[in-house]
Amino acid sequence: MAAIMYTRKPAFGRRIVLIDIENIVGGGVLMPEQVQAAQAAIAAAVVPRNDDQIVIACGRFSVDVVGFEWRGPRRLVFRAGMNGADLELLDILETERVGDRFAEIVLVSGDGIFAEVVSRLGLHADVTVASRAESCSRRLRMAAKRVLDIDYDPNAIMEAA
User: How far is CA 139 from CA 98, 118, 120, in A?
Assistant: First the structure.
């Protein structure tokens, strides 16, 4: 039996966008308007490409609203508990070889829990962090090659509802 040889294909501009939607909306996602406004704000900062791989993470109580309201192709992951969305995204960043498979990694979150993995991935790929300016940890800003500010006001959505 002949051995099968696999060769690593270059990433050739492939981009993955990992989104902690609860970080952008400022907590649990309860209303469709929160998802719609967050998606628009993220798209304004991180101009979408047709071939982007989108991964959206949230907590267990947000998954229904996020799953139904987000428009377009995406992978939806969720986990219950404190920092559930963060832990789901960390698992992907640490176990799915994103640094080998993608030329560009965009993390939409401001949580400092990602600083170490963003710094490590920056050795293999172009890593951008997109976050609301007031909710992005300093450690994460320093770890990323580039930081984009997302213009989303969580209070405006709640007042309009």
Answer: 21, 10, 13
Encoded amino acid at 145, one letter: K
Q: Which residue from 90, 143, 147 is spatially nearest to 118, judged by alpha carbons? A: 143
Amino acid at 87: L
- Cα(126)–Cα(144) distance, rounded to whole angstroms? 9
> Which among 147, 84, 146 has a CA at the least distance from the CA of 113?
84
CA–CA dist 21, 18 (Å, integer)? 9
94: exposed, middle or buried (Cβ count in 10 Å: 0-12, 13-18, 19+): middle
**Region at 155 (left for phi over 0; alpha for psi -120 to 50; beta for the rest):** alpha
Strands 75-79 and 15-20: unpaired
Which ranges of the chain would DSSP assign to H, the alpha helix? 21-25, 32-45, 63-69, 84-95, 98-101, 115-121, 138-143, 154-160
pTM reported for the whole predicted model: 0.90
Q: pLDDT digits over 75-132, tens only?
A: 999 999 989 999 999 999 999 999 999 999 999 999 999 999 999 999 989 999 999 9
DSSP 3-state of 48 = coil
